[in-house]
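Troubleshooting log. The previous run stalled partway through. Resubmitting the same two chains, unchanged.
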Amino acid sequence: MRSRSSLSAAGTLCAVLLLAPLGAAAQLPELPSLRVSGAPAFVLLGVSPTAVDRPSSPTDLGLDLADRTGVFQSLPRDFALETSPYWLLGHPRLTWRADSVRSLGQSMARTFAISAASAQLGDASTPSTGVSLGLRVLPLSGRLAPRTMAQLDTIEQALGRENELYFRRFSDERARMDSALTAALRQLRGAIQDPGTLAIAQAAIAAQYQGLKQQLEARIFADSSYRAQIAAGRAQRGPVIPQRLGPMLELAAASMWTYPDAVWSRGRYQRAAVWAALSYEGPKVTPVLLLRFQGQASDTLPTLLDVGGRLIRDGANWGVSLEGVWRHPLTSGYDNLYRVAGMFEYEVLPATWLVGTFGRDFQTQRSGSVLAQLGVKITVNAARYAPPEH
Amino acid sequence: MGSDPRVSDTQIYRLGDKGNVTIAVTVGDAQVGETTLQLEGATTHLPAASTFPLGSADSLRDGILHTSTTVTDVNPATNRTEVTLHLAGGAADRDYTYQLEVADPSGSAQFLIDFIFV
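Second attempt completed without errors. Output:
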C-alpha cells in the first residue's frame, strides 16, 4: 500500500505533538466523527472492544450467543459481536475477480453486517447494563482498485511457484508410486471381470495409495529446505489490504437501551443514530458527503441532524482538505450551527508530518471556537492509509 | 508451510468408453489461489477461470492426476477458503468441493487432491 496522506484515513494511529495551539481549547477536525468508524453498535455504546466475536458459521453464531447469554437466560455482559450473514455461509463459486465489481444487490448482500454490544455503564451503587444493536450496509462499494488487482495477480503467480516447489520435492518417489499404482490397476482390470467387485478393489487400492501419499506429504512438509523456500517467498509479498475505488454509499444505524441492575423490565430506550456517507474514492481526490441523525431519550439533550461535506486532495507526501458541518437541532429552542475547517499536512521527514488546521467551531461565542493548530504528527504504524473494510 | 491448514484426498474418477476429460478449478469466497497439476510427470499451472484439457479417456485410464491448490486469505470478511474441482468428460461430470479455514488474515491453505482415472 503506497504512502498516502492520513486526511482520508479515519483510524490511522498517530502521535500528535502540538507545537503551537493558538486556540486555547481548539478541537481537531470533527467531520470523521460523523462517519461511523466502527461497528455501529460499538460506536453508539461508546465502547472500543479489544475482543470482538466474529463467528464464521451459523453454528459458531448460535454457540456464541448461547454461551454469552447463559443459554439465552440473561443479558450478556461486556459483549461485542459483529457478523455478516452473507459470509456465515461458504460461496464456492465466488472468485475474487467476480467480486471485483458488484451490482447493487450483490454489494448490499456482501457488506450487510449486524453488530451487538453490551457494557457496564453505571457504578457500584447504581449498576446499569447498556445494550446496543446496529446494522451497516454499503449499497455502493465501488470496484477493486487496479493496483489491488495487480497485487492479487502477483500473489497467484507466487502461489503457483509454491505448488511447483511442492511437486519438485521427492518427485522420483512420487513417480514410482504412480507407476506402481498404474500397474496395480491394470492387473486388477485383467483379473476381475465383475464391475462391482472391480470397483471395490479399485477403491481399496485408492485408499492404500492415499496412505502412502500422506506419508510422502508429511516428509515434504517436514523438509527444512522446502519450508525455508516457502517462508522466503511469503516474506517478500506481505499482506494485501484490498482497496476499492469509485462511488461508495455507506448506511448505518444503531439503537441503545439501558437496564438498571440488569433487570429486563426496567430497561429503557436511551438513544439512536443513523449515519449515511456518500463518497467517491478516487486515486487522488475524495469528495465525501455525510449525514448523521442523533436521537436522545433525555429531555435535556436535543435531537440533532448533522450534514457535512469534505473534499480531500492528497499526494504521496502531502494532503489538504476542507470540511464543513451544518448542525440542525430537530428539538425546538435550539439554533442552527455550522463549522468550517481547513487542514493540511506535509511529510517533512519519513513518517513525520507537519499538520495544520484553521477554521471556526460551532459555538463562535465560546473560548476555543477559533480552530487553529500547528503540530507534528508521527505515524507509528507502517500503513498510513487503512481504507474501511468493504 | 508446515503450519498451514491442509486437506489431502484421493478420488476415483470413472471414465467413459471415449471422450476427452477436462478439469476446471474455482477458488471461492473471493480468495486468491492457484492450482498446479501434475500428470505423467508434467507440471502445468492452471490458468484462472479456464477449463483445461487433460486428454482422452484411453490415454488417462489407470493413471493419476495430482493437483495442488494453494489459497491465501485476502477477503477481510471471512477466513474461509474453498476450492471446487470440476471434472468433466468421464462417465459423469462431477464437482469436488473442499473447505478450510485459516487461523489468521493473510494465512494460506493447501488442497492436495489426486484423481485416479478408472
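Takeaways: Chain B touches chain A through 56 residues (CB under 8 Å). Chain B has a mean pLDDT of 94.
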